[in-house]
Amino acid sequence: MRNFLRVLRLSWAYRSRLVLAAVAAVLAALCWSLNISAAFPILKVLIQGQNLHEWVDKEIEQFEQQANDPKKLSDIRNMRAKQKELDENPIADDREDTLRRLARDIALKEKELAHAHEKAAQHRWLKLNAICHLPDNTFETFAWIVVALVVGIAVKGLFEFVQETMVGVVVQRTLFDFRNQFFRRGLHQDFKQLGETGPAELMARMTNDVEQLGTGMKMLYGRVMLEPLRMAASLACACFISWQLTLMFVAVVAVAVFALNKVSRAMKKAARKVLERMSELYRVLREAFDGLRVVKAFTGESRERRRFRAANEDYYKRTVRVINIDAAVGPILETLGILAVGLVLVAGAYLVINSQTHLFGVRMLDDKIGPEALLTLYLLLATIADPVRKLSSVWTKMQSGMVAADRIFALYDREPSVGANADGPMVPPHAQGVVFKNVSFSYLPGRSALNDVTLEVNAGETVALVGPNGCGKSTLLGLLPRFYDPDHGEILIDGVPLRTANLRSVRKQIGLVTQDTQLFDDTILANIAFGRPGATQEEVEAAAKAAHAHEFIAALPQGYQTRTGDMAASRLSGGQKQRLALARAILRDPRILILDEFTSQIDGESEAKIHEALRTFVKGRTTFLITHRRSTLELADRIVVMDGGRVVATGTHAELLVSSSTYRRLYDTEPTEGKNAA
Prior knowledge:
Shape: elongated
Radius of gyration: 41 Å
Mean pLDDT: 81
Oligomer: single chain
Distance between the termini: 55 Å
Helix content: 55-70%
Largest sheet: 6 strands, mixed
Number of helices: 22
């Protein structure tokens, strides 16, 4: 509930719309009760065949007769005389008890007379302010009541429309703000946290869970606001007829509310399971379609179908449980509601048929009522039962929204271990060197990826990192832009420790090209300009030419305005994507350049051209190369050999062939054409 309330606080910014929705809900509830109350005059006209003028005159006459009842007035006079007599005789037997009884009886008689006077005054007011405007003809009276009822329903519908649209706008604006905040928080999560959660889980909570949260908010601001107001308005009108019979109805409804509270706990648990299974479906879908090449190449379609079917079946079973709980709540509450209404109807029918005001010695009516008033009471109580039934489904949906809020904030509240350090020291334009000092790092406890790595790289130096797969090359360079922080040791750029430096000032100086090229579903121009927002067309084209991408871009149907498509899967080859990524890095003009297997998917001819461009581009920049290609090593001033998460040797190609057995093994196993290393 606490997390659900946190989202509700965001809607405070739109409180004017919420106030308007609340006012519309109140007016709609008033119209609702007045429309139901119109049943009384309609029944009067239809059952007794008299117009309302005749009815109100008869009621006024009847109440005036009760207010001036000679017998009651005489009884009061006699009792007062008896009181006076007892006051003058202080030694009379049972004097105090008799005086108390007389005072009680006088008060009761006077209350009955005052009640009759009040009723007569109410009916006179009704005659002078409402009924006098109605026609004398019985049919015309009936027609006007029906017209007023239709107008009342239309007005009620208008208020409900305003209420629902205002609530819809508030909910959607709140979700709009919350999605933006959630996305921003997600972007600031560090790689380790995102790796633990997984993209599928994050997407499920960003989409499906947020929608469930929105449904809960809409129920709260919509039905939970409107239905209780309807109940209150109908209760007020019902109490006007008989508050005692209404109280009997409310007592049974309280049992229904208790049952609803019990069911809501089961619904909350079931809703949590459903959301968890939806996340599992997202995960299976993402893995299957991201790895579609592998699935098809290894004829794994049937295995993936079985895996998806199992996840889908589990989701189906959990969803059916929620449906069953939701479906059971309505009939249970409806039965209890009808039981309550039926109990009141039977009790009221007994009082009407036998012209009584008491039931089992308890006063149930202030005055005797006719069948018209009883049926009107029945309609009012039935309209109270209907909102209770609707609130049952509303409550279950709110439970789902609360569960969704808990799941969302479980990710939202995670603080990244890699802080932005907005107030930290700015790293000046890189001009001295990069130092890895006794760096150790592990993705999982007890499984080290780097062990006590120490490495110094001078500014402007090009260093190549080589070694077997899994030796920690990419992990080491991933620490440089602070994708992760080392478990032990520190990294310094120009003497400034990265852990305390302003993160933005560090990353602005770094350009990155990886083996797994990420292109966005946008134009080629925008993808290259992602490296430096605001770059001109000429600057983008110059970077593309330096990366030897301009020719194939110019040959595309819309040139630089060609959209790459989702993940660029169907539009560009692997080598073309890598050249676009390289152009992006070149356009950024970084002081530190990281090239992680950047030519893994480029043909030999293109690679030679790119190497030629890079020889010029890397001058004056600190460059880190991760490569398995012998030809790329020619760009390096120094080669660093890694194995088992450690730096085992450094030197030039010739020096390492003599001093490092690991390097010789890597060199000897590389094919002569220079394509694959160890």
